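== Polypeptide entry ==
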Amino acid sequence: MVLARPNFLFITVVYNNFVDTEDFCRSLRLQDRAAQFDLRCIIVDNSTDLTESARVLSLAEKYDFVSILRPGENTGYFGGLNYALERNDCSNFSCVAVCNNDLEFSAEFCITFAESRFSDDTFVVCPNIVTSDGVHQNPHVLRPLSRIARARLDIYFSHYYIAAILNSVQRAISRVMPRGLGSRDVKPSGFIHMGIGACYLLLPQFFAHFSKLHYPFFLYGEEAFLSAQVHRGGGRLFYCSTLNLRHKERATVSKIPAKVAYEYARSGYRTYRNFY
């Protein structure tokens, strides 16, 4: 399905983080408007800090393409995205980007997407997400995990203290072998099993089958659930190496105490482990 005039909807979720959200909006304002496309942005404000929430609200006055939604409670990441998806008809957009707020899109992002073509069974496009230290986070998972890899996850999620030991070992290894070794080069575009959760581009084909993201929890496992949803619907996820954006990695989960974050992830793991 190709629309005559490309139109984009960006949906992001913020939790007590105005600065990164404004940087996010600024990167959208820098998109090449002369390229003849339309752009909207919805910010779902999960903030509990009233001062931060008021600052986020001011973005709708500063940027004419921005609107704010407030659920009135912290709905989580995919919960916040669904809050917006359920209140908007997304079927007529060329692209609906659902994403973190700590992202900055390249100035050519929208025009590059508009000039790209994807197969009819591509439901989701996963862009080339690069961290501040140059690590490419996509492609995240190329193919379903092996039994050995699943066993490792089972061990990790067996107990918090086992996970803490494994994390300590990983940090020690990282000091010897730099983080992201082998992932600092751009990988070729192609179909993948799973993309990193920081940003997904939902195509019209996705909305021909679904109206929202299938996700039953508050946090964690979102990547696995989206992958399973797309594949159950007969679609695929495509990693596009030319759609560039920067990830500052200041996500909400970094503010959650380690043990609490682990228990969030562990609580749903048995449900989504087979989606990997």
